[in-house]
Design a protein that fits this description.
The protein has 13 helices and six strands. With 289 residues, the chain is α/β, with parallel strands linked by helices. It folds into three domains: 68 residues, no CATH class; 113 residues, Trna Endonuclease, Chain: A, domain 1 (3-Layer(aba) Sandwich); 59 residues, no CATH class. A six-stranded mixed beta sheet has the order 1-2-3-4-5-6, with helices on both faces. Helix 9 packs across helix 10. The longest helix is centred in the first third of the chain and has 16 residues.
């Protein structure tokens, strides 16, 4: 596999292979031909009998992981090396791009606690990092910045020692440089409640206080938000975790994640997929038994 001298021309196009559009196109019969054409232009195409869609995606991901570590690579390695390594039985929930105060958290993993991961790749700037971390600290129990090795020294000096640091090393392994410390003293129910769905708030209310009072549908969300903010901090924080964890994938979706190629884990995590969609994807990738 020999890349052309000017691969920078194709780096962005290759990174876009793993955009959210892939899930929409994965059952398109023309996708193999599109991938073959792209990889041929990049001199990455391998002309062999075993060529298929999974092979094409693996070649693309391997190239990106070695040469152009875009956001998908970082997120996918978090899925592989943290979520799936430590929680093999669907015991934890991974959410991605989740609204968090005025920011969007890259990844949040919920088990006994909530842990947010903010990704900063070699392609990113750090201009917004202080405001992002300020928002996340008011919502989540632990917080990590996941970045490249040469950024670690500066971040270790400039960030609070309560914020953990993880480096994606050149060999593709995630290395925890500094553990995250518990941030529960900063929890702000008024910020956290904005991350929750109305259905989650209604369920939480019913679990604690019984049926909702009679009211118009338009007033339910405000009522539940106001109720949530009257709870004791420990109760509100625990309910927040439970609500987020309830978004865990179905057993079929987790089976798809477990069985698919390592390059595709993040593609099928952090979003809700119907059983029909899961079965179609598994058939397309040759994962059905």
């Amino acid at each position: 596999m020999v890349a052309t001298q000017n691969m920078s021309t194709y780096n962005y196009a290759l990174s876009q292979v793993f955009s959210p559009a892939l899930l929409k196109r994965i059952n398109d019969p023309s996708l193999e031909a599109t991938m073959r054409s792209l990889l041929q232009r990049c001199s990455l195409y391998e002309d062999e009998e075993s060529w298929n869609l999974t092979k094409a995606l693996d070649i693309t991901y391997t190239y990106l992981k070695r040469n152009y570590r875009c956001e998908y690579v970082y997120k996918n390695e978090i899925a592989n090396q943290i979520l799936l390594k430590l929680h093999k039985n669907n015991s934890a929930t991974l959410l991605k791009e989740i609204a968090s105060d005025n920011c969007i958290a890259d990844i949040v993993i919920i088990n006994g606690t909530t842990t947010a991961y903010e990704v900063k790749t070699e392609l990113d700037t750090f201009n917004r990092l202080p405001s992002q971390l300020e928002s996340y600290q008011m919502i989540y129990d632990h917080l990590f910045v996941v970045t490249y090795p040469s950024a670690i020294t500066t971040l270790s000096k400039s960030l609070s020692n309560k914020i953990g640091l993880i480096a994606l090393e050149k060999n593709g392994k995630l290395k925890t440089v500094r553990e995250a410390k518990l941030l529960t003293d900063k929890f702000n129910p008024g910020k956290a409640v904005l991350t929750l769905r109305q259905s989650e708030l209604v369920q939480a209310y019913q679990n604690l206080d019984g049926a909702l009072p009679q009211m118009g549908t338009a007033f339910v969300h405000r009522f539940c938000c106001n109720w949530f903010m009257t709870l004791e901090l420990d109760v509100a924080r625990d309910l927040f975790r439970q609500c987020l964890k309830s978004r865990k994938p179905t057993n079929l979706q987790f089976d798809l994640v477990r069985r698919c190629h390592p390059s595709l884990k993040m593609m099928f995590l952090g979003r809700e997929l119907s059983n029909k969609a899961c079965n179609l994807v598994m058939a397309r990738l040759g994962l059905l038994e």
